[in-house]
Amino acid sequence: MTDSQDSVITPPQDETTSGPRRELVVGETRYTLLGTAHVSAESAADVRALIRSGEFDAVAIELCDSRHHSLMNPDALGEQDLFQIFRQGKAGMVAASLALGAFQQRVAEQSGIEPGAEMRAALEESRDADLPLLLIDRDVGITLKRIYHNVPWWQRFSLFSGLLGSVLSRQQVSAEEIERLKEGDVLESTFSEFAAESASLYDPLISERDRYMVLRLAEDAAPGRYRSVLVVIGAGHMKGMAEQLEQPLPEAPHPEREALEATPPPSKVWKALPWAITALVLTGFAIGFSRNTELGWQLVVEWFLINGVLSGAATLVALAHPLTVAATFVAAPLTSLNPTIGAGFVAAGVELWLRKPKVRDFSTLRHDVTELKGWWRNRVSRTLLVFLTATLGSAAGTWIAGFRIAGKLFGG
């Protein structure tokens, strides 16, 4: 990348845009950063006017491949194999994505403006003008994973329960939330109350993405490749990206960009923990039987009842089919002793077999999840709830039953 000495900032050439706009010339390329409001008809109009002006020969937008795909194909989830989602451990991420989509839909209903209109305008206008379209944002799934790994473990539950609670609430989206959306994006608005006070959250959510998007520009729209590039981003990213573009960037940005896409591997301790619990429980059974047969069977029965009842009862919360509840009751005590398969996977598999989602469920999914009862009414989202509740019930049952066994053996 060209050194910062070759970079200058020039003011906007006109006042035709309603939002903030900055122009930076790096080498032979002019980058025009257009700060948009994600809930604003004016921002969409700004994007259309600038692209139609003929000033630009490339357009870069604050979208990743998955968000671009969702924007172009709102029913994309219907093309996925739900069973594969559960097997690959992506159910939680899909549920979080649906919850974020529900927040967007609520904003659209209450403001009368569809969030992301300016991105859709950029897609349409760049296609009509036959301009290269560059997707420069980091994948939303990677950002959520990096947030998860960056915050202390004891904050994770409150963070994501707060996320789900806020997006599922049927309360009116406040004026303050709408204003935050006008300066950032859905992620920033949703996490705003945490991000302002938490560097561990702010870094992966905002500053890392500023850096990532500039690195993508350095790769896909390096100085000299295009004459003039329009960069459509949320207004909240303008300051950080402008500062990054003023500084020297690596000539080979790919390694640093890949580092910002990496997620820490699971801790060896956490990977070993399920196997350690299995070994301890089986050892407890062996000790019980070695003392007397009656104690051994008592421990086994309590293990099965505690695991089975808690997991089965948890699926009842999701209004699972009665056979799903029964299957979960039987499977949970066994899957808790086999770390290679979870009770949630079994429960979701049985629920899918008994209540296979219909075409209508996929077509109405994003609308259904905007209200709390819709999560239970739609077969797709209800199956996700079955998976999550069975998993949580089994985890609770494992720990409670484990302590119960330890108490019986060593508590006197």
Automatic annotation (TrEMBL):
CDD domains: TraB_PrgY-like. Keywords: Membrane, Transmembrane, Transmembrane helix. The keyword Kinase does not apply. InterPro entries: TraB/PrgY/GumN_fam, TraB_bac, TraB_PrgY-like. The chain crosses the membrane at residues 272-289, 301-320, 326-354, 383-406. Residues 1-22 are annotated as: Disordered. Residues 1-19 have a biased composition (Polar residues). PANTHER family: PHEROMONE SHUTDOWN PROTEIN (PTHR21530), TRAB DOMAIN-CONTAINING PROTEIN (PTHR21530:SF7). This is TraB/GumN family protein. It comes from Halomonas pelophila. The lineage of its organism: Bacteria, Pseudomonadati, Pseudomonadota, Gammaproteobacteria, Oceanospirillales.
